[in-house]
Amino acid sequence: MLDGRHIAVVGGSRGIGAATAIRCAELGARLFIVFRSREREAVEVAKRTGGLAYQADASVDGEIDKAFEGYSSLDGLVVSAGIFEGLPIEQMTVEFWDRMMAVNLRSTFLSVRAAARSMRQGAKGGSIVIISSTAGQRGSAIFSAYATSKAAQIMFVRSMALELAPDNIRVNCIAPAWTETEMADASLTELGREEVAKQFALGRIGQPEDVANAAAFLLSDQASFITGSTITVDGGFDMRG
Q1: Residue 126 forms beta bridges with which residues?
Q2: Average of pLDDT values for 208-224?
Q3: pLDDT, mean over the chain
Q4: What is the rounded CA–CA span in Å between residue 127 and residue 178?
Q5: Percent of the chain scored above 70 by pLDDT?
Q6: Is the predicted pLDDT of residue 35 greater than 80, yes or no?
Q7: For residue 203, how many C-alpha atoms fall within 13 Å in the half-sphere facing its CB?
Q8: Residues 152, 105: contact at Cβ < 8 Å?
Q9: How many angstroms separate the first and last alpha carbons of the chain?
Q10: What CA–CA distance (Å, rounded) separates 117 from 127?
Q11: Is the pTM of this model over 0.85?
């Protein structure tokens, strides 16, 4: 389904990003793993997928461009870099807000910009997938900065889908609900996994592989007529009463 395609995963060292890289490799893709600080994990994912690992802070202007140099034939991009933190509005500082927007939103913008340049050079088109969150669709108390960054990702995707369509570059978004990742571990432990699982219509918390399967579909030709969309992968979480 993805035979021979060059796919970059920004934030591919763990969680949803790592699961997506592994799934794409299983489907025949050639992987390029971009990581910020978790070198050991990124190298492990690269070994498992037969891909390459490259260190870059995607929120810093110019770093992701250097990472993509030489990838004029980039076929796909997945942006899974992000942080998940919350504070009540009275405790929230400008520094906290700006960090959330930099890691979750600016990294998305810079990664898409770099990938679009590469895909346009290759003149073959491509597919871009951004990992957002259901929090960006419904809002979230205490996690308002996180939810805002994720809502902005969704609108950015829709805008990029329109802008890049003439170059046959599709841009889509995935919005997972609670997913068993290292990033969500502390919150899930505090809330209680059994209690959280009860909120899902399907009776379980999401797994990284659930999101990875959706990402692989959007990267493939099977989704060749899908762009500007947000696919919700939430096990019926948002249908709860």
Answers
A1: 169
A2: 98
A3: 94
A4: 25
A5: 98
A6: yes
A7: 0
A8: yes
A9: 38
A10: 13
A11: yes
Tell me the C-alpha distance between 12 and 20, whole Å: 8
Distance of CA 13 to the CA centre of its chain: 12
pLDDT band at 151 (very low <50, low <70, confident <90, very high): very high
Respond yes or no: is residue 71 known to be catalytic: no
Quick one: average pLDDT of 224-236?
A: 97
For the cut 60, the answer to whether the pLDDT of residue 198 exceeds it is yes
The catalytically annotated residue of 146, 178, 200, 237 is: 146
For the chain, what is the HEC assignment? Answer: CCCCCEEEEECCCCHHHHHHHHHHHHCCCEEEEEECCCHHHHHHHHHHHCCEEEECCCCCCCHHHHHCCCCCCCCEEEECCCCCCCCCCCCCCHHHHHHHHHHHHHHHHHHHHHHHHHHHHHCCCEEEEEECCCHHHHCCCCCHHHHHHHHHHHHHHHHHHHHHHHHCEEEEEEEECCECCHHHHHHHHHHCHHHHHCCCCCCCCECHHHHHHHHHHHHCHHHCCCCCCEEEECCCHHHCC
Long-range CB contact pairs, 84-88, < 8 A, 24+: 84/143, 84/146, 84/183, 84/184, 84/187, 85/143, 85/145, 85/146, 86/140, 86/142, 86/143, 86/144, 86/145, 86/146, 87/142, 87/145, 88/142
- The tokens describing 182, both together, are 């290292």
